[in-house]
């Protein structure tokens, strides 16, 4: 069974969201597979959750079909939402892409990426 087939069968357990990091126009799509995190993201979008609204997670250095503009994606199991975080994990989307070979070293140690200015925009459907 292929990944897409598996995703289709478990549609209620999977959701896709998009965020930006102003002032840059770039956007980034991530996948959630945990119902509590999916609800938390929906609560952020509806305005119900107002404190922990920024996205954090572990970078996987490979493209994901639902996030075709970038050659990296978040590990869905690692994603969380935060209010404040340490500076060492902050970076703009395009900067991460341009420095992907350095991720995991002094730049974004442990592959943890927590863009401080990330702003959840909407839930999207895929495919």
Helix percent band: 10-25%
Number of strands: 9
The biggest sheet, with number of strands, parallel, antiparallel or mixed sense and barrel status, is: 4 strands, antiparallel
Q: Return the domain count.
A: 1
- The gyration radius over C-alpha positions equals 14 Å
Average pLDDT confidence is: 90
Write the element-wise H/E pattern from the N-terminal end onward: HEEHEEEHEEEE
- Tell me the strand percentage band: 25-35%
Low-confidence stretches: 1-10
Molecular shape: globular
SS-based class = alpha+beta
- Name the assembly state: single chain
- Could you give the distance between the termini? 16 Å
- Number of H/I helices: 3
Characterise the protein shown here.
The protein has 127 residues and is α+β, with helices and mostly antiparallel strands. The protein has one domain. Helices cover 20% and strands 29% of the residues. It has three helices and nine strands. It has helices at residues 3-9, 35-46, 93-98, and strands spanning 15-20, 27-32, 54-60, 73-74, 80-82, 103-104, 107-109, 112-113, 119-124. Strands 3, 4, 5 and 8 form a four-stranded antiparallel β-sheet that branches. A three-stranded antiparallel β-sheet has the order 2-1-9. The longest helix has 12 residues, at 35-46. It is globular and about 35 Å long.
List keywords for this structure.
127 residues, 4-stranded antiparallel sheet, alpha+beta, single chain, 3 helices, 9 strands, 3-stranded antiparallel sheet, disordered N terminus
Task: Summarize the helices and strands and which ones pair or pack.
Blueprint: H1 3-9, E1 15-20, E2 27-32, H2 35-46, E3 54-60, E4 73-74, E5 80-82, H3 93-98, E6 103-104, E7 107-109, E8 112-113, E9 119-124
Parallel strand pairs: 6-7
Antiparallel strand pairs: 1-2, 1-9, 3-4, 3-5, 3-8
């Amino acid at each position: 069974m292929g990944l897409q087939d598996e995703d289709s069968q478990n549609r209620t357990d999977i959701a896709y969201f998009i965020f930006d990091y102003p002032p840059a126009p770039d956007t980034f799509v991530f996948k959630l597979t945990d119902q509590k995190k999916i609800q938390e993201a929906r609560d952020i979008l509806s305005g119900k959750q107002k404190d922990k609204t920024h996205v954090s997670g572990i970078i996987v250095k490979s493209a994901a079909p639902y996030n075709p503009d970038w050659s990296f994606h978040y590990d869905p199991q690692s994603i969380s939402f935060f209010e404040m975080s340490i500076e060492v994990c902050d970076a703009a989307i395009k900067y991460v892409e341009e420095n992907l070979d350095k991720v995991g070293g002094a730049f974004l140690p442990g592959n943890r990426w927590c863009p401080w200015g990330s702003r959840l925009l909407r839930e999207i459907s895929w495919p």
